[in-house]
């Protein structure tokens, strides 16, 4: 039996001390919807600590920031799932655990999504089998995997599981990991050095930030994405098989280390590596990028990270100039085009005591 999840309110922040339990087959779908709405009305604008769903009610919960799922329910053994959600700046992070479960994303679900997203999955217990376009990725404890919401897919958890899930708008993720969609299905193994380091970071994020709420998600989300980007870059370098792959990796590493240099231009980079500007641009174009666009995206991401840090005392102009921008007005316009708000509004929101966790 399949149920299509549709709980657009599920991402609304809840009260940390609140508890919510729904037992599926003892309630009708309309009763569950009414109960949820009453709960939301009573706890609006706070952050919830834990959600517990069983059986038929689970279909209500499988909707995170308008990412829709089709839940396969077993009448003989209704699944039981615990979810601890957090959100910050359009990014959702959830600690999820439960009984064996299978969820699907077909064309109907994809059509109902509000946007396209990159999913980060950190497996802490049990297994997840990710299937899309005939390809299988098995994710075992300690592994980290990426998936893209634009593909039809099946996620099977054949045994009791525990995982950390992050759902990030593609536009946001591309600021730290260009050509992000190409990493769909990438698995970073727990036994690899970079996998072990990233796993340690994500464990702390899940335990302290998501589950215990010792600090707001907003205070560490940009650093988390930077750590993830560095790990992906290291993983790609390990698996680079062609001269072009290796060249691209070297160029990106070189530019990343010099983002604060306003003279970092395609001409300067091409000269450093002894190639023509045309060849350098072609290498980037093959990956749906440009040299200037990549630098701009990384610089904006660095500025965004500092603007979200309430401890920073530098002015917006100082931050922009320190990361290679030379015109404050131009920077402000680019920032708003990329992130949807001006730098001053973004910084003010992150310094507010009521900023969402």
Task: Report on the architecture of this protein.
- The structure is a single chain.
- The chain is of the alpha+beta class and 357 residues long.
- It has two domains: 2-234, Sandwich (Jelly Rolls); 240-351, Orthogonal Bundle (Arc Repressor Mutant, subunit A), CATH 1.10.10.
- It has helices at residues 29-43, 58-61, 107-112, 170-173, 193-211, 221-239, 243-256, 266-273, 277-285, 291-307, 316-322, 328-339, 343-351; strands spanning 2-4, 19-23, 50-54, 63-64, 67-68, 70-72, 80-88, 91-98, 101-105, 117-125, 128-132, 135-139, 144-148, 153-157, 161-169, 187-188.
- Helix 5 runs antiparallel to helix 6 and helix 8 (266-273) packs across helix 9.
- The longest helix is centred in the middle third of the chain and has 19 residues, at 193-211.
- The protein is globular, with a radius of gyration of 21 Å.
- Residues 1-48 have low confidence and may be disordered.
- Keywords: DNA-binding, Transcription, Transcription regulation.
Number of helices: 13
State mean pLDDT (0 to 100 scale).
78
Shape: globular
Number of distinct beta strands = 16
CATH superfamily of the largest domain: Jelly Rolls
- Tell me the strand percentage band: 15-25%
Total number of distinct structural domains: 2
Radius of gyration: 21 Å
Distance between the termini: 35 Å
What structural class is derived from the secondary structure elements? alpha+beta
Order of neighbouring strands in the sheet with most strands: 2-3-7-8-15-10-13-16
Oligomer: single chain
Task: Characterize the main sheet.
Answer: 8 strands, mixed
Assigned CATH architecture of the largest domain: Sandwich
**Percentage of residues assigned to helices:** 40-55%
Regarding CATH, which class of the largest domain?
A: Mainly Beta
The run of helices and strands is EEHEHEEEEEEHEEEEEEHEHHHHHHHHH
What is the third-level CATH name, the topology of the largest domain?
A: Jelly Rolls
Question: Unreliable segments (pLDDT under 50, ≥5 consecutive)?
Answer: 1-48
